[in-house]
Design brief:
Helices cover about 30% and strands about 25% of the residues. By secondary structure, the protein is an alpha+beta fold. Strands 1-2-3 form a three-stranded antiparallel beta sheet, with helices on one face. The two termini are about 30 Å apart. It comes from Mariniflexile fucanivorans.
């Protein structure tokens, strides 16, 4: 069962679920926006993307963020996806993270974009 993130109820009042593809996107979202140390039983989970939001835009910040995101995805989700590319764009005050990956179960290519 793939529990929907963020946690919510369906129309029957039961725990909402999501399809496999959406569940993987939810898992990527959780990884990107969880800071290391935030989870009690998994203190290393997360990549600290929210901390990058307050850093000044620079090529160095973008490269560091790309490294942290790609490393986190490879560490925590490599059993589900193969990361093809992580690109970081800073557009004025917006940080955009684009993740291109391949689902291992069916070799389908996906791209997901997050902005903060």
């Amino acid at each position: 069962m793939n529990v929907k993130y963020p946690y919510q109820f369906n129309s029957l009042g039961k725990t909402a679920t999501s399809e496999d593809d959406l569940h993987i996107q939810d898992m990527i979202y959780q990884l990107l926006f969880t800071s290391p140390g935030e989870r009690v039983n998994r203190p290393n989970f997360g990549c600290g993307l929210l901390q990058a939001v307050f850093e000044p835009n620079s090529n160095e910040m973008a490269a560091t963020t790309q490294y942290l995101v790609q490393g986190g995805l490879n560490q925590w989700l490599s059993h589900l996806i193969q990361v093809n590319e992580v690109s970081i764009n800073t557009i004025e005050s917006t940080l955009e993270v684009k993740v291109n990956y391949t689902l291992l179960r069916n070799k389908e290519n996906q791209t997901v974009v997050f902005q903060k």
